Every structure is written in structure tokens, then in C-alpha cells.
UniProtKB/TrEMBL annotation:
Cross-referenced Gene3D superfamilies: Bira Bifunctional Protein, Domain 2
Gene Ontology MF terms: catalytic activity, acting on a protein; ligase activity; transferase activity
Protein name (record): Amino acid--ACP ligase
Keywords associated with the record: Ligase
Domain of life the protein comes from: Bacteria
UniProt KW Ligase keyword: yes
Domain Aminoacyl-transfer RNA synthetases class-II family profile, chain residue ranges per copy: 209-381
Database matches in SUPFAM superfamilies: Class II aaRS and biotin synthetases
InterPro entries with a match to the protein in the record: aa-tRNA-synth_II, aa-tRNA-synth_II/BPL/LPL
Amino acid sequence: MIKTYPTSNILNERQAQSLLAKLIYSIEGISGCRLDETTQAIIVELLPGTAQGPIDDAVERLIAKERSSRIIGSRLYRETEAREDARAGTPETAGELFAPNGAWKRGLAVTLSEQIDRLLVEWAQRHQAQLRSYPSMIPVETLRKCRYIETFPQNIHFVSEFPHRLEELEKVREAGDLNGLARLSPYALSPAVCFHCYAELSGSRLQEPLVLTSRGTCFRHEAAWRVGKHRLQEFSMREIVLFGEASFIEEERRAFMEEAWSLFERLGLAGKIETASDPFFFSEESGKGQQQLMGNMKYELIARAGEDGGSFSIASFNHMGDSLCKPFEVLDAEANPMQSGCIAFGIDRWAYALLDGYGGDYGKWPARVRETLESARMAVPQ
């Protein structure tokens, strides 16, 4: 069943897009949700047996919140088209190398991920980055300290556990109600790598600028019907985290942004860099997103896929100010909260963009692309 919710006489285009972004994570029992660009209506595809009442209520409540939102558009920084020697990869290529639900990658998809990461590590080490490795789980207390849970509740995967009590463990074998027996642990699956860096440096006083880099597995709770292709619940990120004065953060951020754009062009990909904001879930916090846009605090590198692949972010360049150093008490020599920045690369998405552009036969890819991917050396021991 399809349900249509008109918005053209109630919301402007940007408000309608913001409504859609929140609605996707506000209702269950659906197989699709989109904005009709011609009529500006929200189209919701309901699964059999789904009650309409809760969906109607969610749409009504979100529309009421969005009506008062003032939303600023993104500003373009760079844009390029795909090289003429790029060709669209076939759907079979993506299906053969990427599992539809993200459960596995095969062959060339794995090789590309490693090649891309070596390039990124080489960049980071040219900027004197120190290598780090962190676990996939992160303490809930760490996420609370940076207000991630309260701000992005739609993204969190918590970790459950069975109590270490004999009578409880015996019930696991006897009963099928695992939800009733499990409890929340003090951990969540990490939604980003950078939070581990702040936790490591918590309470530190740094005498000079510091750059850290780590590759980690990150997790986001996606709507099940959206998972696939470039959108995954579990994905690999290479992050470069900067600590220093505001001028150092901005200089380094711009340098990484230019290097990323240069690589993007050498690989013959199509897309753009534009100002962006984080996906704040609650309309009451939308002002933070507008501040990011107005202050150029966040840029995203957007790749364009084939005819029906859409566009998706493959990197972000963030100036955090002292918003995270302050709660973690990462201080400078004068005991003032340091400024920080985070450069994040979605490795799986870079690989997907390349496969979409050139297909699965690596030997037929343009020589310049293969040479670029094969140019990186292994990380230098520290």
C-alpha cells in the first residue's frame, strides 16, 4: 500500500527534504519513503499489515516541527564530471563484489579498499600523523560525554549481554525469549572512530599540535529497506583527527580537502565538494546544523554514481572548534580547551564509486587510475 502526504502548501523544498530525512528513521513497517520532486509530496510504501495511524501521527508531528525551521542550502566549493574513459559498471558487478546487505565484499572490492586506505595513510603520515588502532565497541559514557546519543539517537547500536549468573544462563538454553533475558551492556558499537581519540586524550595537556589517524569499523542503525550498495550498517572508516590552535586545524583541513579533491579527479570520478551539516535528528537542534553551514564548519565530498545510483558522501572535513575537547578536557599548555578537526573517509564508498565507474575487470581500467591506486606504499613504522 502507498500513502501520500502533500507538503507543497505547508513546507518549502528544503523543509520537505529535512522532513524526509527525519521521517525515514521515525516509522517502521515500511518498504520505502521518498520525496516526489515534482509534487513535493512524501510517498510512503507500507508493508502488509502496517497500521496507518502511527505513521499519520509521525508525519503530522514532524511537519509541525519543520514549519518553523529556517534551513540554509549548501554552498558549492568544487565540482567535476567523470572522465570520458570512465564507463558505468554493470549492476551485476556490484552484486558480485558487494553483498546487498553489506555482509561481505569479494575480490576486487577488498583489494580496492586496501589500496585506498594505503593512500590515505600515506597522506596522514606526510602530515606527521601518529597511527592508532581502536576497538569496535565504545563505552556508552564516552558517547554521552560528547552528547552523541542525545543528538543522533537514530544511529546507535547498543551492545546487549546475558548476566553472568548461572540461573540466567540456564534460562538462555530453555527459553526462546532472548530479549527478556538480555540486558544493555555499558558499551555501544562505535558510530565513528574519532571519539576514541578524544577518550584516549581525556584529561591531557598537549604542548604542541597533534595529528592521529586510525582505521576502524563503524556502525549506524539504518532503516532496513535502505541498506545496500553504498549505504551500510557496518562500514570501514579512515579518520584523521587534528588537535591544535584554530589556525592549525583550518590549515590542515584545507590541505586534506585539496589532496582528496586531487585524488578524486585523478581517479576520474564525478562529484563535488560542498558545505554540509550533520544529520541532527530533532528539529529543536537544527540550529546547530545551520551554524555548521554558515560557518563552513563541515564540507563533504559527494560522489555521483551511475544512472540510478544517486549521490553519496565519501569523505567529510570537519572543524569541531572546542566542542569535543572541552568535555574531554583536552587542553593546551595554558590549560585552555584545544581546537580539533576530523577528516573522515568512507573506504567502502570509495571502492563502490570506482566499481560503479569502471566495472569489475581491473585490467580494463584506465592506466592512470591503476597507477594512482598502486602508487601508495605500506605505512612507515613509527
